[in-house]
Amino acid sequence: MRILVVEDEVDVARAISRLLGRSGFAIDHVVSIDEACAVARVHTYDLVLLDRRLPDGDGLGLLPRLRCEQPGVRVVILTACGAKDAVVEGLDAGADDYLTKPFDSDELMARIRASLRRSGGSHAPPIKVGEISYDPNLRDVVINGESILIHGRELTLLEVLLRNCGRMAPREAIMEEIYGFADNVQESALNSLVMRLRRRLDDRKAGVKIHMARGVGYMLTKADK
Question: In this structure, are residues 39 and 65 in contact, taking their beta carbons and an 8 Å threshold?
Fold first, then answer.
């Protein structure tokens, strides 16, 4: 899943990006409304974390333009403007949630998960392949009946492969979901990530195989018995 952080305070943006990155989200960061509009025309986002006090105006001004580009995107306001009138104004403007700074990391992650679960109005059913059951709403992985902790980009990779089970997922599409546009990614990074995930799944006897088509992409299938 891909999240856009619209925040002009570099230290705050860096802390948010680290927090979200540990949970497996691909993060893009911009510092203004105009930059946010520009990247929203190029990339698709699941959620936007939006500050209000930006160099080129109130972040609420981004909402109608953002909804025009990506009608289904979830927007969480994350700002120091915590007065009751400001919160009401933000929600009435179309934000899905409103959180004030300074924020608690656990609460921020809980609100992000809640907003993503509300996307589309219903919960997506678990994806089951081999001995794996993956809940995309909770981002919870169960293998052979045991809940398994898989963090960061490895979890995002597994989610992409499970969603495309039986179909070749192109390298470019996988990279788009795993890495932010500012990440300096070596060509071998995805190969290494796949190797680690394959080893983890094999160790857990997950009953799946990850196939590679060199230069094309990867595909996950149920393993032959």
Answer: no
- Give the DSSP H or E segment for 195: helix 188-203
Report the distance separating Cα 194 and Cα 218, nearest Å: 9
In whole angstroms, what separates CA 127 from the centre of its chain? 18
Q: What is the tens place of the pLDDT at every residue in 100-130?
A: 998 899 999 989 988 887 755 445 678 999 9
**pLDDT tens, position by position, 75-91:** 999 999 889 999 999 99
How many Å apart are CA 207 and CA 46, to the nearest integer? 30
In this structure, whether the domain defined by 127-222 belongs to CATH 1.10.10.10 is answered with yes
Return d(Cα 123, Cα 119) in angstroms, integer: 8
Domain with CATH 3.40.50.2300 in the chain: 2-121
| List of long-range contacts for 147-151, beta carbons under 8 Å, 24+ apart | 148/204, 150/197, 150/200, 151/22, 151/23, 151/24
CATH number 3.40.50.2300 given to 2-121:
yes
Distances (CA, A) of 108 to 84, 99, 100, 150, 169: 19, 8, 10, 20, 31
pTM for this model (two decimals): 0.68
Structure tokens at 144: 């052979």
> Which part of the chain is CATH 1.10.10.10?
127-222
